[in-house]
Amino acid sequence: MSELIDPIEKKRVRWRSRRGLLELDLVLTRFLAERYDQLTPDEFAAYVRILDLPDTEFLELVNGKVETDDVTLAPIVAMLRSV
Amino acid sequence: MNVPVRHFDAVIVGAGGAGMRAALQLSEAGLKTAVISKVFPTRSHTVAAQGGVSASLGNSEKDHWHWHMYDTVKGSDWLGDQDAIEYMCREAPKVVVELEHFGMPFDRNDDGTIYQRPFGGHMSNFGEKPVRRACAAADRTGHAMLHALYQRNVRANTQFFVEWMALDLIRDADGNVQGVVAMEMETSEIVVFQAKATLFATGGAGRIYASSTNAFINTGDGLGMAARAGIPLEDMEFWQFHPTGVAGAGVLITEGVRGEGGILRNSDGERFMERYAPNAKDLASRDVVSRAMVTEINEGRGCGPNKDHVLLDITHLDPEVIMSKLPGIREISIKFAGVDPIKAPIPVVPTCHYQMGGIPTNYKGEVVLSTTDNHSDIVKGFYAAGECACASVHGANRLGTNSLLDLLVFGKSSGNSMIDFIKTQPENLPELNMAAIERSVARVARLDGQKNGTNVHEARSAMQRTMQAHCGVFRFKDMLAQGVAKILEVEEMIKTIEIADKSKVFNTARLEALELENLIEVAKATMISANARTESRGAHVRDDAEDTPANPNGRDDQNWLKHTLWHRDGNKLDYKPVNMTPLTVEAIALKTRSY
């Protein structure tokens, strides 16, 4: 499935995974190494949307302090919590 | 060579609090202002600041800027420039109220005024008792500040160049600054941003250390660019550390863990704090705990395969207590240390947090080369603000909540200085110094053409381990001397770093290599400045600077009440006196620093 994702877009999103908070950098580095290349186009699209969140909200989601009610984001949130 | 040139009144590198505060000043004055940033502005590292911003508003109890000034001078261990500190503390109430008007959602009192809370080191009546001076927006002060400033900048038509990396500063034959060379990440195209005035607001360089709380973007790009362009770096030996960060990650473990009964242990399982502080033990002050941890590691009693950390043990505590009193610590430990603290101790190490030194400026944000305390010899057209600058308000040690204040006060004053300077400049920009631009282009070409070179990751890791082991929170004479030789070896490695991926579009490997070339300049400045300063002052603490009646805490005012200036060329060190002449009040006289 992965070949359906634009390779240039994948590189752009890899850079956008650099954040203002260390905790997110650490989690996303692992995510990029372990899971990123296996994402389906839907999961990739969900990840791109999560990256639009402000860092503070993003971290709370990854830490499990808040839950998302967006069902399309849930799988990627679960992945980020497990790496 | 054909490098496109864009023209502006002002170019700002960095879109954190300081850069955006300056940009706002310039754009609202109607000037054409460009802000270059590696990441989207609201994802700058300012977002990590939680504590608040200090100002003697006196909303909850009586306060005065002069008391704030006293606390800041004392916090700086008298290395801060008193003209700049007076300026900052007097401006504080104004810039905080301005920020409120920009839409910053400060916590409020019932009467609608900004709520203020106490914060370490902030006192009333010249050190008498704690005062409520910190203004915060819940635990998201930095985040809220970035959002307020970004929205306001968009309204003022500031032009943001997001996902661009500045490569080098351009100075003409007389040393005046003409702008920067920058690279667009999407295409790797190199473009010149020519401007009448250039501001660096690129933040700190905490990534020079193996253990740092700084985000990955904090690579000291402005410091590297300034050093390569012949600008000295000031007081780079002064870095603030926190005693307990998760080893290998840098995420902080709150001191509350020791408060709840956490015990530090070495590789023998010994509770070593009993030897260093028989009474307070693990609850001794930050500097005592840090010093003990580093001594254990240096004497071979560190833990792990590299014997480079100690253990924070809470396995003896009731799991219920851990869950209720220390929320989040278990998650942090599992996620970043890979251990469940209910079952096994957490690996911890003193962790770098904040850089006090930087590009030398006066309180107007103008970059100064002078070795006198009157801030003459200004670099025309060049300004710096925020963590990358050294005004110097933090001196040898920063007071909590003064960093966000620094961003606002000196972001604004830089912006105003730039407006005044731009007005004096002819409408047509001068001819660019092509040699400077060519050097920058050649630096990228070297990287792309390098064969059989050093791996970027290995070189960065060597630098970080060297800094952590030889120039960390507590410093040893012999280790520093060895550290100088080692960091110069690492520099040689970095001269031949090579990247496998040479593609043009969002090439993260190339960006990381360019960042490493900036980090190494900061690492050298830090190690060499620290090796030379043979006293202890503030955050720079050495084993060979003894606590004597003449030199309390090892501070040697006779010989070392002066700022360090490190020059990249030949690693030469100069010194300049501390400014002890405030703008309107009497100097805060030298005293032993104790709390």
TrEMBL record, chain A:
It comes from the Bacteria. InterPro entries: SDH, SDH_sf, SdhE_FAD_assembly_factor. It is found in: Cytoplasm. GO terms for biological process: succinate metabolic process. One of its GO terms (cellular component) is cytoplasm. Pfam families: Sdh5. Belongs to the SdhE FAD assembly factor family. This is FAD assembly factor SdhE. It comes from Craterilacuibacter sinensis. The lineage of its organism: Bacteria, Pseudomonadati, Pseudomonadota, Betaproteobacteria, Neisseriales.
TrEMBL record, chain B:
Transmembrane segments: none annotated. Part of an enzyme complex containing four subunits: a flavoprotein, an iron-sulfur, cytochrome b-556, and a hydrophobic anchor protein. It holds the Pfam family FAD_binding_2. It comes from the Bacteria. Residues 534-543 have a biased composition (Basic and acidic residues). One of its GO terms (cellular component) is plasma membrane. This is Succinate dehydrogenase flavoprotein subunit. FAD binds at residues 14-19, 37-52, 221, 387, 403-404. Its cofactor is FAD.
